[in-house]
Amino acid sequence: MFKIGFLGGGKMAQALAKGFIKAGLSKGEMMLASCLPNDMGSIEAFKEIGSQTVFTNKPVVEYGDILILSVKPQVVPEVLPEIKDSKKLLLSIAMGIPLRTLEQALPEGTPVIRVMPNTPALVGCGASVYARGKNAGKEDAKIAEKLFSAVGLCEEVTENMIDPVTALAGSGPAYVYMMIEALADGAVKMGLMRPIAYKLAAQTVLGAGTMVRETNTHPGQLKDDVASPAGSTITAIHYLESHGLRSAVIGAVEAATLRCREFSSREDQN
User: Fold this and answer.
1) What's the number of CA atoms in the CB half-sphere (13 Å) around residue 242?
2) What value does the CA radius of gyration of the chain take, rounded to a whole number of Å?
3) Whole-number Å distance between alpha carbons of 14 and 28
4) Which of 84, 111, 230, 235 has the smallest CB count inside 10 Å?
5) Could you give the 3-state DSSP secondary structure of residue 101?
6) Which residue stretches of the chain have pLDDT < 70?
7) CA 22 to CA 7: how far, in whole Å?
8) Between the CA atoms of 193, 125, 259 and 155, what dihedral angle is there, to the nearest 10 degrees?
């Protein structure tokens, strides 16, 4: 069981806390989170799982054996001075904040791991990656992987891969939501009632993703398995290809990656 301190008690921190409890990695009473005094939603969310909340970060730093930096990126510069004396394992989910920035603000030898989760962690279906800092060893990595596997898939990458991962898995749910909406709109145009159109579109995306992950079959092969000769699927695929679906999605991931790199570079220079 881990004693965990959340530096920031927003939605992602709440999702992680619930996942840790569900996986038996911690208990509500073994977690402490710092929240803004007027953020009653976060305070109540932690209260519901049996966790205490405070309005400053110092008690969190003193309490937790593991600290999770879960504030918004623009707030990180305000928080780092409050944890500058801590040598406890720090897991940062603050987007765009490089390991070097975090390590320079902490005592020499402090283990730091940067983690990039995504919002489906809220329902236990997250896709997270983590990158180790220079002082984070194998045991630290095992802790990070164990914790974030509690809310979905978790893989280790090098830090230079965090930006494309953010563009893919971090931003990716937004692209998929647009696809679900478009699929449902198409069905509504052809006469299907909207509530069932949304349900079927969402379930179709869920099922297709599960097929790719569970069967370990190339998505192109799975696509071919659905597309019968002269059938409706291959006709629809031709339409999507002729309207640049692949190119648009590839371009979206590229654009998001470049934007992440721009943000990361700016933070690294500060």
Assistant:
1) 6
2) 21
3) 11
4) 230
5) helix
6) 266-270
7) 21
8) -150
